[in-house]
């Protein structure tokens, strides 16, 4: 599986409708609604070396079993606060009380002396389009200050050469060009080519296009 994330900051709320119209000839089906929540935390500890990274990002995906990915300094961990996500063995040996707590809540409730939340960006009620080549997810993005832009998540479930994947992404970029959209951020980065992890790579791509 491969993914690419595109963020069009200079767009309007109606741009997502225009995207749907231009994709209509290629659609096999329109699938489930989806959402994401992107949070940025800043480390408040003083006297760290100047080169030490101070930002950490948390991305929660409704369409990925509500899993959250924590990204810091090009490393990532996947967490979940879903009931049943705690292995039974951890409860039986006393390592867990079997109650789930999100990582975000842990930071704000128990580690607030170390981390402060800097921003929250959300995409709600996004649309999912299935074509013969890609699963295309699109949603309008909002923050505290209002509308931020259009985010497009592109996913290919097939095992195809990188060159063919790039061609499929370029077709979407051509659609954006047809919509007179040429100014946007795009990321297809892979964290570790030797040990690919789809969800961690996807989260890193969100960070690259959404971080200030």
Automatic annotation (TrEMBL):
A cellular-component GO term for this protein: mediator complex
Keyword Transcription listed? The answer is yes
Alphabetized InterPro entries for the sequence:
Med20 (IPR016532), Mediator_Med20 (IPR013921)
Biological-process GO terms, alphabetical: regulation of transcription by RNA polymerase II
Localisation per UniProt entry: Nucleus
The UniProt transmembrane annotation reads none
Any GO molecular function: transcription coactivator activity
In terms of Gene3D superfamilies, this protein maps to:
3.30.310.180
Family classification? Belongs to the Mediator complex subunit 20 family.
**Per its database record, what is this protein's job?**
Component of the Mediator complex, a coactivator involved in the regulated transcription of nearly all RNA polymerase II-dependent genes. Mediator functions as a bridge to convey information from gene-specific regulatory proteins to the basal RNA polymerase II transcription machinery.
The protein, known as: Mediator of RNA polymerase II transcription subunit 20
């Amino acid at each position: 599986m491969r993914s690419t994330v595109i963020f069009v900051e200079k767009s309007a709320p109606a741009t997502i409708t225009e995207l749907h119209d231009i994709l209509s000839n290629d659609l096999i089906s329109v699938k489930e609604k989806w959402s994401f929540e992107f949070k940025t935390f800043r480390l408040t500890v003083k006297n760290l070396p100047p080169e030490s990274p101070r930002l950490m990002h948390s991305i929660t995906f409704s369409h990925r079993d509500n899993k959250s990915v924590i990204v810091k300094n090009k490393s990532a961990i996947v967490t979940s606060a879903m009931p049943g996500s705690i292995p039974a063995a951890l409860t039986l040996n006393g390592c867990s009380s079997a109650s789930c707590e999100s990582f975000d809540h842990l930071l704000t409730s128990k580690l607030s002396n170390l981390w402060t939340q800097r921003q929250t960006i959300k995409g709600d009620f996004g649309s999912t389009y299935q074509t013969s080549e890609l699963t295309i997810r699109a949603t309008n993005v909002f923050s505290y200050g209002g509308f931020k832009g259009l985010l497009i998540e592109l996913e290919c479930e097939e095992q195809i050469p990188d060159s063919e994947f790039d061609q499929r992404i370029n077709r979407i970029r051509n659609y954006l060009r047809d919509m007179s959209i040429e100014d946007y951020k795009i990321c297809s980065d892979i964290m570790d080519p030797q040990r690919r992890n789809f969800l961690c790579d996807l989260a890193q791509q969100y960070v690259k296009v959404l971080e200030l």
